[in-house]
Amino acid sequence: MTAADRAPEPLAERQVALVDLLDRLLSGGVVLTGDVVLSIADIDLVRISLRALIVSVSERNPAPWGPEPGP
């Protein structure tokens, strides 16, 4: 059986470690969004929109608070 004959394993049946999943997500970045609405008697009183960008720090993507690169 050659590599071309083997079909990739379906994602639902594939075992993926949480660390590997987080590594893949953070290498490209993840955007989380959400809305919180506080209401009384079907009247919206407060609406909060939340957005967060989560990305790993690397040489290609340095931290904004890190030290300045030397000469």
Automatic annotation (TrEMBL):
Pfam families linked to this entry: Gas_vesicle (PF00741)
Annotated compartments: Gas vesicle
One GO MF term: structural molecule activity
InterPro entries referenced in this protein's UniProt entry, alphabetically: Gas-vesicle_GvpA-like, GvpA
Highest taxon above the source species: Bacteria
GO cellular component: gas vesicle; vesicle membrane
Tagged with keyword Metal-binding: no
Keywords, in A-Z order: Gas vesicle
Similarity comment: family membership: Belongs to the gas vesicle GvpA family.
PANTHER family: GAS VESICLE PROTEIN A1, GAS VESICLE STRUCTURAL PROTEIN 2-RELATED
Name of the protein described by the UniProt record: Gas vesicle protein
Organism, scientific name: Actinacidiphila glaucinigra
